[in-house]
């Protein structure tokens, strides 16, 4: 197993008391593609961040099991976590703009990521960086390598982030809304790229997204989250015909070009789902 989460609880201490956010989540992943869907605030990002021990400092966390490849995350030291984060597991976030350094060229940043993991001379690293940019299907890698982050488009920036993340050959890729800042065509291209890299390199993928058809297309299994719980976990191919009322509700709230609705329904909720 790449990771195993059993009965994970995350909450926040506040002036008004303790506020739970993730309430007993369990999921595991091997060399496969697992999606997490669910409305905003349902606990998707917190669950993924817990795996990398990247939670806000006020967060309180408990679990029966929280393991990355058999390593207990809760008791792991910061030093141990650094051998996992960005090395054995890559994290792709929504907007690459916040993760790239604006005053350094794209090539030098990818080269630095390479050298941090593989060592070698600066020149060799720059060559490796150009190879990585080619691997993420950037057509003119030399030109892009000499550009600054503000000179590349959002889709290109996300490719650069993926290239940086590939430098250490990670076993797991966590992508938290990797394409929601991009337009639909670029979205599909980036996901196709992620899918290709994941299957070519035999990586595991945890893909968080609001886009149910997309998750159903790209993943093997899907966990549907609601208010800090996983309300169901199903085969991705069965997601669009899911029977759970919450999942059906999410599906019904999607705008559709094929079956336009005058008004999108409001999602109904039932306390029974949390039992
Ligand atoms: N730093 C924080 N302090 C207090 N509460 C927080 C904090 N971060 C998250 N939460 C709580 O945890 C809940 C879940 O957050 P999380 O980021 O996991 O949601 P999400 O499912 O990823 O939503 P989105 O789809 O909007 O990204 C939030 O609704 C919020 O109430
Ligand atoms: Mg989130």
Descriptive notes:
By secondary structure, the chain is an alpha/beta fold. The chain has a domain at 93-169. The protein is built from 9 helices and 11 strands. It has helices at 44-51, 78-84, 106-118, 122-135, 141-145, 154-166, 184-201, 212-218, 245-252, and strands at residues 3-14, 17-29, 33-37, 59-62, 65-68, 71-72, 89-92, 172-176, 204-208, 221-226, 229-235. A 6-stranded mixed sheet has the order 7-8-9-3-10-11, sandwiched between helices. Strands 1, 2, 4, 5 and 6 form a 5-stranded antiparallel sheet that branches. A hairpin with a 2-residue loop joins β10 (221-226) and β11 (229-235). α3 (106-118) packs across α4 (122-135), α3 (106-118) runs parallel beside α6 and α4 packs across α6. The chain is globular, with a radius of gyration of 20 Å. The relative contact order is 0.16. The mean pLDDT is 90. Bound molecules: adenosine-5'-triphosphate (ATP) and magnesium ion.
């Amino acid at each position: 197993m790449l990771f195993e989460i059993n009965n994970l609880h995350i909450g926040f201490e506040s002036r008004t008391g303790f506020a739970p956010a993730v309430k007993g989540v369990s999921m595991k992943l091997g060399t496969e593609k697992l999606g997490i869907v669910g409305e905003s605030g349902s606990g998707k990002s917190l669950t993924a961040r817990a795996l990398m021990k990247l939670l806000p400092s006020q967060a309180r966390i408990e679990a029966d099991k929280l393991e990355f490849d058999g390593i207990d995350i809760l008791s792991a030291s910061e030093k141990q976590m650094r051998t996992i984060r960005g090395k054995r597991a890559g994290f792709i976030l929504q907007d690459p703009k916040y993760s790239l350094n604006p005053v350094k060229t794209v090539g030098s940043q990818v080269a630095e990521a390479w050298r941090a993991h593989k060592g070698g001379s600066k020149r060799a690293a720059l060559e490796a960086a150009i190879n990585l940019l080619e691997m993420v299907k950037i057509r003119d890698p030399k030109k892009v390598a000499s550009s600054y982050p503000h000179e590349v488009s959002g889709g290109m920036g996300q490719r650069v982030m993926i290239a940086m993340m590939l430098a250490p050959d990670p076993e797991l890729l966590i992508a938290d809304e990797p394409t929601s800042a991009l337009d639909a065509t670029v979205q599909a291209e980036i996901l196709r790229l992620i899918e290709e890299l994941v299957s070519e390199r035999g990586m595991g993928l945890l893909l968080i997204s609001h886009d149910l058809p997309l998750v159903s297309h790209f993943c093997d299994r899907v966990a549907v989250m609601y208010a800090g719980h996983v309300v169901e976990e199903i085969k991705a191919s069965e997601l669009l015909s899911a029977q759970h009322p919450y999942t059906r509700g999410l599906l019904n709230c999607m705008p559709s070009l094929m079956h336009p609705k005058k008004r999108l329904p409001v999602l109904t909720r039932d306390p029974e789902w949390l039992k």
